[in-house]
Amino acid sequence: LTTAAGAGAVPIAEFVIGRLLEVWKQTRGIEAMQRQRRFTRPQSRLLAGCTLGIVGLGAIGSAVAERARALGMRVIATRRSYREGDTSPLADELLGPSSLARLLEQSDAVVLAAPDTPETRNLFDTGALEQLKPGAVLCNVARGALVDETALAKALASGRLGAAILDVTREE
Questions:
Q1: Using the 8-state DSSP alphabet, how is residue 16 labeled?
Q2: Full-prediction pTM beyond 0.70?
Q3: What residues in the chain have per-residue pLDDT under 50?
């Protein structure tokens, strides 16, 4: 027996970066304008200079961090096995799970790449979503159980959360 843990890290990381670009560069809106043969300059955001929070700096989180840093993003990450003083060449700041609030308050986008454990189940509830910067983007490539989807829908409907990129949901 063996494990395939991390085998999909690169494709998933590329999915994350591609979807962040889609959201922040408004590519869907630009494509719609092209079909309608009209053009107005859309609001756009640079990835460079933005802060990306990564919850779970394992194989997938590390692959995302590597690509984000190549695009000039600041990376803050949590690692379950974190010990005081730990660092990572892939993160500008490495934190333990108990410092999630610090990560949320600073991040323009947050990527969930943590396992489904009793500690992470419903980790992103109303309280966590309210700690995010207004307009932040949440990207879940971990497990659907990490996000309270009712709270997520409310955060999106209120405009507090800028977008949700969901590779997974509770009910697949």
A1: H
A2: yes
A3: none
